[in-house]
Amino acid sequence: MSAPLVIAVDGPAAAGKGTLARRLAAEFNLAYLDTGLLYRAVGRRLLDLGADPHGAAAAAEAAATLTPADLARADLRGPEADRAASAVAAIPAVRAALLEWQREFGRRNGAVMDGRDIGTVVFPEAPIKLFVVATPEERARRRWLEMRARGVAIGLAEVEAELRARDAQDSARSVAPLVAAADAATLDTTALDADAAFAAAMRLIRDRIGA
Fold first, then answer.
1. Which residues, in sequence order, are CB contacts of 181 under 8 Å at separation 6+?
2. 14: annotated binding-site residue?
3. Where on the phi/psi map is residue 11: left (φ > 0), alpha (ψ -120 to 50), or beta?
4. Residue 192 carries which DSSP code?
5. CB-CB contact of 3 with 178 (8 Å)
6. Is residue 210 marked as binding?
7. For a FRET experiment, which of 51, 110, 122, 127 has its CA 20 to 30 Å from that of 157?
8. Residue 129 assigned ligand-binding role
């Protein structure tokens, strides 16, 4: 009996991996998991407590006691949540607490999972791995438009600075850094809209599975 299909979609913030992963999940009739929400929820719990997201003990406790309700919060996006998520994601105890949760989710019935270490750490055996990228300028523009649509008053330059800072922190951390798996197919969405990105991803997937 073959293992359930897991499709790993990794990449930096605002590269379009979430939109793509949700569409792939619908296409293949698989569950979808935004693993970044796990880290955002941990960071948000710490912010609520007035705790430092860089504090290992408090962050590990928050990760170990995370509930589905934490993932449903409406305040898991934005610069403050981004910084807190990046901080807790660099803590080994947090990643260890959330790792088996993510693996069990994928093993249950298969899944499309998006994050930063799905193809390298969570499911290195995944048969399909995509690494979704775009230029920092285009990613900042997308994130800025999203935030403006939500009524968040912030300048484009500030959004780009936040993204670049998070890229640096995510790429430099010692545990599960943001890096493409050796066997991942890279998809650059800089000049692609959602439909074109999906079409390109499907071509890469068909090439990978020989369909």
1. 8, 10, 119, 120, 124, 129, 131
2. yes
3. left
4. -
5. no
6. no
7. 51
8. no
* Amino acid at the residue 34: D
Q: Is 19 annotated as a binding residue?
A: yes
- Give the confidence band of 1 by pLDDT, cuts at 50, 70, 90: low
Q: Is 115 helix (H, G, I), strand (E, B) or coil?
A: strand
18 is in an annotated binding site: yes
Domain 6-203: which CATH class?
alpha beta
Reading the block at residue 175, the tokens are 């545990």
Q: Rounded CA gap, 74 and 100, in Å? A: 25
Q: What is the pLDDT of residues 35-94, one digit of tens each?
A: 989 999 999 999 999 999 999 999 999 999 998 899 899 999 888 888 899 899 889 999
Instruction: Write out 146-183 in H/E/C secondary structure.
Output: HHHHCCCCCCHHHHHHHHHHHHHHHHHCCCCCCCCCCC
Is pTM beyond 0.85? Reply is: yes
Domain ranges of the chain: 6-203
